[in-house]
Amino acid sequence: MTIPIPAEDPRHVPNRAVIDPSAITQNTRDLTGLLEEHTALMAVVKADGYGHGMLTAARAALEGGATWLGVAHPASALALSRAGLDVHILTWLYEPHTAAIVLPEVISSGIDVSVGSPEMLTLVADAARQADRRARVHLKIDTGMGRNGVLPEQIRQIGAAMREDDFIEVVAAWTHLTSADDPTDPSTDQEVALFDSACDALADEVGPIPLQHLANSAALLTRPDLHRDLVRPGIALYGYPPVATDVPLRPAMTLTSRLALVKEVPEGHSIGYGRIRSTSRRTRLGLVPIGYADGLHRAGSDQCDVLVRTASGDHRAPQVGRISMDQIVIDLGPDTDASAGDEVFVFGDAGEAPTEPSATTADDWARAAGTIPYEVLTSVSGRVTREVRA
């Protein structure tokens, strides 16, 4: 028997990931505005909506003009369907055990399923027979990622198998580009050529393919020629474009905490594990009860600022020393008026006036840790309460 452990009462935890659905809605509108009328937008809300809450992100994106939702796992697709969202849903990542359990219900619910190998086709066909309903299949083509997807030389074989199976309906072909976030990389055009050739071969076997899709956030923003029938933005929906753009995307998550204590220390006082930082002057340090167990990457230690809201206004303060599991230390300076209980903005939108210092972003934390904002956002752990802004 499994006994659930109750979650911490959010009223007793100072850390908050404040989600602004209006930012996701507006970002979706702005991205949809880049598309031709015939091109649809699939909002990718996998990984619990990139840490923003899957249902919150999905509803906000639909309000902004998305007409499809995409998730990796079938269980997520079922959750979207059960929430009553009347929209096309695509799921693409499953293994045999999961497939046997959930794919029949997925197909019964009218959810589209990706197939990326002959073995996956068998799993989907078996589930469709059990559900007594044709499966709507998107054939995934591996054009260079080396992950999920049928190799181009397998296209005719799998196309013939799909054509001969009455429980399979081919509704789309798709791929995932490896390097679209570098517009100068020639591999994108090479992958597109492979994809187009594979689609021609597939059409020879199964007839016209209703939908083609290959544009992620980066390709959506930089390659309008690759928009085709459907685009699949993920990170851009949440306010972090992976390429330079003039589209005014706005971050949708703000990570906050509060000062637990403020204390004065002398010059030369060491801070944190390993003593990687010592004070260069007499100063006041602030302790913030958030750490790597909450999602801050330890690799980013001693490299980012936070924003502290004190009685006199907003002030940036560097995070100093190693990031610990449950806490960080910030250098408030010798003359600060900060006190325990003051709000700390780790990253995101502090609602600051134009004349005030701006809050740090997930991009800043990603650069500090040598990673990407995708990982920063999805690393914000479950013990950080999500608070949806009205």
Write the layout of secondary structure elements.
Blueprint: E1 16-19, H1 21-32, E2 40-44, H2 46-50, H3 54-63, E3 68-71, H4 74-82, E4 88-91, H5 96-108, E5 112-115, H6 118-131, E6 135-140, H7 155-163, E7 168-174, H8 187-206, E8 211-215, H9 217-222, E9 230-231, E10 253-258, E11 261-265, E12 270-271, E13 277-278, E14 283-288, E15 305-310, E16 313-320, E17 328-331, E18 343-347, H10 362-369, H11 373-379, E19 385-388
Parallel strand pairs: 1-19, 2-3, 2-9, 3-4, 4-5, 5-6, 6-7, 7-8, 8-9
Antiparallel strand pairs: 1-10, 10-18, 11-14, 12-13, 14-17, 15-16, 15-18, 16-17
Helix pairs in contact: 1-3, 4-5, 5-6, 7-8, 10-11
Number of helices: 11
Supply the number of structural domains. 2
Proportion of strand residues:
15-25%
Dominant shape? elongated
Distance between the termini: 39 Å
Keywords:
Ala_racemase/Decarboxylase_C, TIM Barrel, EC 5.1.1.1, 2 domains, alpha/beta, 390 residues, single chain, Ala_racemase
